[in-house]
Amino acid sequence: MSVISIPDFNQTIPIDKVGVEERVSRLNKRSIKKESKVQALKLALSMIDLTTLEGKDSEGKVIQMCSKARVPYAPMPQLPSVAAVCVYPNMVATAKKALKGTGIYVASVATAFPSGMAQLQVKLDDTKFAVDSGADEIDMVISRGEFLKGNYNFIFDEIAAIKEACGEAHLKVILETGELETYENVRTASDIAMYAGADFIKTSTGKISPAATQPVTLVMLEAIRDFYGDTGIMVGMKPAGGIRKAKEALQYLVLVKETLGAAWLTPNWFRFGASSLTNDLLMQIVKQETGVYQSLHYFSED
Amino acid sequence: MSEKTKKNEGEATANGSAKPTSPNADLKHDFASFWNYSPAPESSDFVEIREQYQHYIDGSFSVPAKKRYFKSINPATEEVLAEFAEGTSEDVDKAVKAARKAYDKVWSKLPARERGKYIYRIARMIQERARELAIIESMDGGKPIRESRDVDVPLAAAYFFYYAGWADKLDYAFPGRKAEPVGVCGQIIPWNFPLLMLAWKIAPALATGNTVVLKPAETTSLTALKFAEICMDAGLPAGVVNIVTGAGQTGAAIVDHPDINKIAFTGSTEVGKIIQKSLAGTEKKFTLELGGKGPNIIFEDASVDQAVEGIVNAIFFNQGHVCCAGSRLLVQEGIADKLIKKLKQRMETLIVGDPLDKNTDIGAINSKMQFNKINEYIEIGIKEGATIHQSNSSSLPDKGYFCKPTIFTGVAQSNRIVQEEIFGPVLTIQTFRTPEEAVEKANNTPYGLAGGIWTDKGSKIFKISQKLRSGVVWANTFNKFDPTSPFGGYKESGVGREGGLHGLYPYVKLK
Amino acid sequence: MSDRIDVLKTYKTYVGGKFPRSESDRTYKVNNSNDKVVANACRCTRKDVRDAVLAARTASKDWSGRSAYNRGQVLYRIAEMLEGRKDQFIRELELLGMKSKEAVYEVELSVDRLIYYAGWTDKYPQVFGTVNPVASSHFNFSAPEPTGVVGIIASDEDPLLSIISLIAPVIAGGNTCVILASESNPLPAVSFGEVLHASDVPAGVVNILTGYREEMVDHLSSHMDVNAVLNTIFDKETRKLIDENASISVKRVVHYDSKNWADDTHENPYLILDFQETKTTWHPVGV
Fold this sequence. Notes:
Chain B is an alpha/beta fold. Chain B is 36% helix and 17% strand.
């Protein structure tokens, strides 16, 4: 047991926007070729939280997605499966059943996703329902309105309460960075989430634009690095929403590699919240294996 | 929530990389054991490099009078790249005559707008041949392709583009005055940014109606001669631009030539002083862009992660071969430990190696001479009792002149490594307590080229930047260049400005 | 006519806001245009140069930090003081052999020239400063700043007007200076020191030495703490010496070719710009 002192979240940690974006642009210039590319494409595939969060989601849709999660591309059965599927709480049981014995986790959004505009009790119930239905991971949203009012204690306490409600399930805290607007806000929210017990911090719900961006991700990775330096505790990172292309995924991996190092380059510590990314990764993998540029018609849309 | 246990303890790292260490140890990040980038060399197949190059005089390539040549090597492989004509006073005289003739007969008579259009053409042709120029710059000078591709060559084109537009607008640049060209300009440029420095010199000179004789540095002549090809392709009238290759003696012949009206020199303070002395008693105008020992001041309230990146840009950009490098880091005591730790971590991710590899951050030291000089300074630093730290993760290639990124802590203002320009990837780190002390240390040098300030507080930036005696102040950024932005030093860092409107002054007589 | 004996003036130097004699205690005779001795002036040495440069350096921090508005007011105050002592200066110029009408013209033009430069202090940075539209996301501006300590080698022509024409743009731009006054006509320069003293010019901003140039130019132009030299002497050897000495510490050197100090070429802001450095500041733009 080590005692961790909680910092004063009102103390803004200055972040220079232009500097962050320059750093990202420099990292984007890393050229990933040959073996390192194949390795990264497969790694990225294994880090996907395959996601469906639509009002029109049905059991049938979820079962199909689980099947894609299990075997992303049938002609290449040796490819890794994705890390998890991410669904609404009422779909958790279905997903859990479909993925039984695969080792693929079931993640559920909770806490009145995506807005988080509900009473704490509602959020706790939502979380407990998902966990009881078998969710391994809970993706909660923070109350952005309270955050922007400067009510940091409220945010902290809410996350801590949800964490407790999660029990054994891992907690990912969605900051919804698109609504926080500034990198300083992203940093503060990251710190609150981590000190309140988050296992992962996550950029976005996917319902707000902009969703995940690389500069936001970098700021969060740097927050994770500082938290690790101060406490010795590793926290995972999940950019979600808007990541569709393999090339971008590789750029994210470069961010992780050069900010946090190799230890974070595993599905245990890094995830992509995405759906269409899967097929683009697959197309690139097949292109690398065969030397032939691919068409989406040959990859299942589940 | 004031107590918490370490989560995920014992969780194996799935990729087999080193596990994160315990919270009680000095926490380190492992940047090397998993997923290393495969080599990504820029292919140089289509780049044509001849075995021998001549001077470019009066619109054509011309064999040197004494028929002597010198070899230039690729500092990353130590192999001979090509040989270049050794310029003698005969060659310089021929070039000056060509420039004078072109000035009298053609260039000074051309309408300003047409002059501008030639310069625009040159700018475009540099853009068109950008890839080739970038590769050559990296092969000849050792700088990473990422920099020659993203900085040197595009900026060189941008300088031509910027000054091209001034050609027919000079009446608006100098209120109450009419600008006239100076005549024939002798220009001597260094090896750290060969093509870019050529652009800084030639673009404003041509825009204001002058003709030029330019000498590239002897270790990096190649892009200047490729530029000569561009001048030919652009149809630039013969003699407007002349390029004479050679070493110091060739430069001296230019400085001493009686029919030159203006000298522009970029290089060391030592040589700059010799040039200034040689010009004593003459009517020649001159500008000097000389050395520096730039302070980079980090205050406690700085954005730390961006500051670390700024420090890296300040000293490791172009292997530290930058006159305006932030080679003296001044850190406020309260943040020093944290910042230095982060800097060391960041240094582990710097890739030293093949300049042509797109992932290389730090390429080859430009020449054996410079390589030896840097190593001497590193030894001096150690002897002076400073604590050295070099990055460990990148192993150096067997061949070529490579130097690990190096920082020295525990240095004193009186140390030679703090006082003297090293011109390599070597940073000294000093701490300070108050803003006043930071300014004192920053200004405690004969140089005054550039400096950095990092703080989140606007009023502090303005105060400190006012007090710094240097021509450029980068606040919350470092080593930024732009054709619209004047550049040049105070004190022994030089005389005059290059870039921007101010960069026109050295090339005009105001009537 | 009364039998009263006139009180003659002892001409001293003006250094650091005081009126010391030369450290060497030597003097030399100043003649008028009829070769009649009219006064003794201090024959300063290298040590006086040293003291004057130190005074100028010491004053530099405060003077360069004054607001442009304040510098303008100080220059205006000099003009006011000079206006009030017009008669004295006219008499002195006459003493040196100048015709009365010319003397009046020179003194009045001197006052006007001071006012001209007083008006520039808060304008030349606007004329010569720029905001530079860089391509990256940065705010970038260039502004002139004083070069520092300027050594001035003054002219023998129009001894009052020339020295004011030399000093005014230099100090209007926030520099401090050390002036080697005219060798043959040093008296108006020394008296001008008294005007400076009576106005609000801080001590050390202007330092005036008299004596033989050949005993001082070398030391002034080679002094490592002098940042720039403004020379009005035509002699080729002197110019070369100054240029060579300047190279020791990369000083800025300006040689004036003008003989006619009444000429309006001496009224322009480019003369201020001669002793300005351009500082360019970058800052990122972002929330």
